[in-house]
Every structure is written in structure tokens, then in C-alpha cells.
Amino acid sequence: MDTTQxxxxxxxxxxxxxxxxxxxxxxxxxxxxxxxxxxxxxxxEVEDLRQAARVGLVKAARRYDPEQGAFLNxxxxxxxxxxxHCFREQARCVRSHGxxxxxxxxxxxxxxxxRAEARVIVERAIGxxxxxxxxxxxxxxxxxxxxxxxxxxxxxxxAQISRALARIIRRMRGGLAA
Length: 178
Known about the structure:
Arc Repressor Mutant, subunit A; 9 helices
């Protein structure tokens, strides 16, 4: 067996206390994106919501004290507060000069970041599914089989597979919104 291949599992997460402010923000950008998605479609542009959530992450990273516990326990309420601030300010996100500076120093994410971010979020949601549900998703979306073909392989009807896919996707969306 070749042990030199990369493991499909992510590397163990480094303790928050050993990360720099920038590393904390970059590592938790998918969380900011997910928080912003919860508030999408309510009268504020999604990009404004994402920006507000990122500002919240930056503020949380600046004020974070590892003695207080995990970074996310501090950062999520801070990012959510910034998003809510956007709504209170009638869809105008107000950012301080210092936050803009830190965000500029971090630079723009590379072009593949959104795809990688989406993959992390989807993998997290898939991890909560049972083996059969994961197999149905694999056959439909990775292998490209039709619902009827999946039904033939699993001994189910196309209608049963259709309902199963709808249930699986609903469950995944619910898990992401929680």
C-alpha cells in the first residue's frame, strides 16, 4: 500500500491560540460566507453581507483572547452583529479605515478560493449523512447517473430516488443554515 498519497481528510486543525490574526481570519472565511448566506435575500446585497461578516472576523481576531475559549465562540456573534449592523444602517455597511487596511493587507482570495470554500462546506454537510444518502449523492452528482439508473442499482424506483434526493438536499441545507 502506498502511504505517500495525500489523505482525503483535512489536516488536524491548529489550536486557535497559535494562529496569527491574519491566519484566524483566513481560516474562518468560510464561516463568514456561511453566516452571510443566512441573511441573503432580505434587502441587502449578498456581497455587502459577506463584507460585514469579514469585518466581524477581523474585529474578532484583533480582540480575541485564547484564554476565553475557541475563536469561533467569539467570532460568530461578532460577525453576526456586523451583519445586523448592515440592516440597521439601511443596507449601508460602515467599515472603519483600520478594518479596510487589514483586509487590504490580506489581499484578494485566489480565484479557486470560492470553489474550495464551497467544497469544505459541502463536505461538512455530507459528513452528517448516512452511508446510503452519501451513495445516492455520489451516484447522482459525481457519477452522473440518472435517478432511474440509481434506482436500478439500489433496488428502488425513480420516484423513491427523487424523493430521497429532495430529502437529502433539504437536510444538507438545514444543516448549513443551523
